[in-house]
Amino acid sequence: MIRPRGPDSLLILIPAFNEQAAVGFVVEEIHRAAPGVPVLVVDDCSWDATRDVARAAGAEVLPLPYHLGLGGCVQAGYKFAYEMGFDYVIRVDGDGQHDPRDIPRIFETLKSSGCEMVIGSRFVDGGADYTSLPRRLGIKFFRLVLRPILGQPVYDPTSGFVGVNRAALAVFSRSFPLEYPEIETLVVLQRRAFRFREVPCRFRPRKAGRSSITALKSFYYMVHVLLGVFVNILRYEGGRPRR
Amino acid sequence: MDRFLDVVAVLSGALIVVVLGSLRREHIRVEYSVSWLAAGVTMLVLSQSDTLLGAVAAFVGVAEPALALLFTGFSVFLLVFYRFSMIISTLRDANIALTQRVAILEYQVESLHEERETSQPG
Predict the structure, then answer these.
(1) Could you report the per-residue pLDDT of A136-167, keeping only the tens digit for each?
(2) A11 contact residues in B (CB cutoff 8 A)
(3) CA distance A119 to A116
(4) Residue B96 and residue A178: Cβ atoms within 8 Å?
(5) Nearest residue of B to residue A177, measured between CA atoms
(6) Residue A22 forms part of a structural domain
(7) Could A1 and B102 be called an inter-chain contact, meaning their C-beta atoms sit closer than 8 Å?
(8) Which partner for A81 in A37, A86, A240, B43 could form a disulfide, CB atoms 3.0-4.6 Å apart?
(9) Which residues, in sequence order, are bridge partners of residue A73?
(10) What residue numbers bound the domain in which A182 lies?
(11) Are B28 and B19 in contact (CB under 8 A)?
(12) Is B115 near chain A, with CB under 8 Å?
């Protein structure tokens, strides 16, 4: 069973749904980039061999008995990490888009900055960018929307390459956006006066599969995320922002 | 006009019969049938009572009672749908929490089994 090892314990979390073609490679890369760091693949009820491939590559697997979608899948990993006593969690996508060699940089920033969340960003310091034009336009739109809400610029609000500390884990294990969680998560953090920082990271084309956000879903994505952002802004407990 | 009111009465009666039948066969639970039964009874009573329908028409400010009946039906079913949206949201949250809890517990139980097997000699 995965357990925290010593102070500043780190868990690498990989949410995965039908990622048998890439997840093994991702786990092996993580072991090379961060030796000794436990890797947990949360399998969102895949119907392919994701969990077997992940286990064979040396990861622990938390298999969900029912498909929850990305948010529920990530939250299961956060809950597990929080209950097991981990201090930090870094989420890496199972499709190979995130370069695990950036994990140490995110981890060091998490520890040294005291920020509750560190985002691996494609757009800070001109990192490589493999996003499509519609997605890039969407990111620019959300940058503009989020700037006044967050009180600071965010260059890559849709990045799933994120590290969180235990304070953020405590919040996310109780409440986490279910669909398209990345942008709403930033607003959730802001409502609790948490801080985040972006660090430049390398993004690569996905090793296999396609993005869950297709052209047809883009409109729904925009409306859903905008609604989620404003709902989180309006959400108060006892007349004060939630802590 | 009378025909329209009769059609609404028949449909309301059918709704009540269907809901009661589903209750009898335990296809829906009592607490979730109340909204549908209330909606059916409201529409049935309004469609058969000129006095009540006239009062509703006067209240919402329409001259045509049929329009008042449509407005009432729309409002009642909107409330029913809203109530069920709330119930579905609550159930979805509970379902997610339970799924995550089951996954974590299953993982822990299997891990403990494996650890016990490897620690036992032979």
Answers:
(1) 788 888 889 888 888 888 988 889 999 999 99
(2) none
(3) 10
(4) yes
(5) B93
(6) yes
(7) no
(8) A86
(9) none
(10) 10-241
(11) yes
(12) yes
The answer to whether residue A5 sits within a structural domain is no
Q: Whole-angstrom Cα distance, residue B7 to residue B47?
A: 9
Domain count of chain A? 1
The tokens describing B68, both together, are 């008042």
Q: Would residue A3 count as lying in a domain?
A: no
CATH number at residue A99: 3.90.550.10
Q: What residues of A are in the B interface, CB distance below 8 Å?
A: 1, 42, 60-66, 68, 72, 75-76, 79-80, 83, 178
A195 lies in some domain: yes
Chain B residues 86-105 within an 8 A CB cutoff of chain A = 95-96, 99-100, 102-104
Set of chain A residues whose Cβ sits within 8 Å of the Cβ of B103: 42, 62-65, 76
Kindly list the residues from chain B whose CB atom is less than 8 angstroms away from the CB atom of residue A61: 107
Report yes or no for ipTM above 0.90: no
Q: Which spans in chain B are helix H?
A: 2-24, 30-48, 50-60, 65-119
| Binned average pLDDT, 10 residues per bin, chain B of 122 residues | 87 95 92 91 92 91 88 91 93 95 95 88 62
Distance from CA of A172 to the nearest CA of B (A): 13
